[in-house]
Amino acid sequence: MEFKVLGPIVAVNKRLVFTPSAPKVKQVLALLVLRANHVVSLETIIDELWGDHPPRTAITTAQTYIYQLRRAFVMELGDKLGDRAIVTAPPGYVLRTPEESLDFRNFERLAERARACRTAGDTEASARWTESALAMWQGVPLANVERGPVLQNYVSRLEEKRVSVRELHIRSAMELKRYHELVAELRSLVLEYPFNEWFQTQLVLALNKAGRRVEALQAYQKARVLLRDELGLDPSDDLRRAQQEVLNSPS
């Protein structure tokens, strides 16, 4: 059985795709998956589901959600898999599953391979591994799950890791002079992360290297206005240097 959280959460057993329909049961599953093979305390489950205002029946209700999840696993995946998937382990519960069955763990392993290749000077391999890692993403993590404080922290950390791998991919692709194919990717990134000046800088540089000097200056101007109007900031030194590189390049 595989568990996917880099997008809508799903459990996959061969060709069978299963997702709980009840929102809070889905939250509990997300917690168990993100802490797979480690104990998730009942206290953590309650904190995720209700924050600082748990009902008096919180313990019993949380235990009911675990029961419902176990029963759903049995119904969807069969007695053998369902009964062994979630086990009681004081002070809470554990989802037992191989690490390779978790998409976010596989993403992290691929990212580590990419970093190792870059450190070793193999830029081509680093670019390939980052592409493989990023291809595992299907959208916003836990896109179909209501997120309380605990899950939101996990999602934020996953997003930060994704940004880091995207930066690594851009660095590798720039070194390989893949400027033309990077432009579309960088345009998408600056829309998604408009205040990330590193992405803005790389877009200016990639456009210029691709022979699109006017568009590079337009990208710089757009970034400068955004930073001024939204944050009251001047462009960073790196972004200004990118503009200067464009101005100094042959027409």
TrEMBL record:
Q: Which SMART domains match?
A: BTAD, Trans_reg_C
Task: Give one Pfam family.
Answer: Trans_reg_C
The record, for InterPro entries, names: AfsR-DnrI-RedD_regulator, BTAD, OmpR/PhoB-type_DNA-bd, Sig_transdc_resp-reg_C-effctor, TPR-like_helical_dom_sf, WH-like_DNA-bd_sf
Q: Which family does the entry's similarity section mention?
A: Belongs to the AfsR/DnrI/RedD regulatory family.
Q: Which organism is it from?
A: Streptomyces varsoviensis
PANTHER family found in the cross-reference section: TRANSCRIPTIONAL REGULATOR REDD, TRANSCRIPTIONAL REGULATOR REDD-RELATED
What residue ranges does this record give for the DNA-binding region? Answer: 1-97
Keywords, in A-Z order: DNA-binding, Transcription, Transcription regulation, Two-component regulatory system
Q: Which domain of life is it from?
A: Bacteria
Q: Report the protein name in the record.
A: OmpR/PhoB-type domain-containing protein
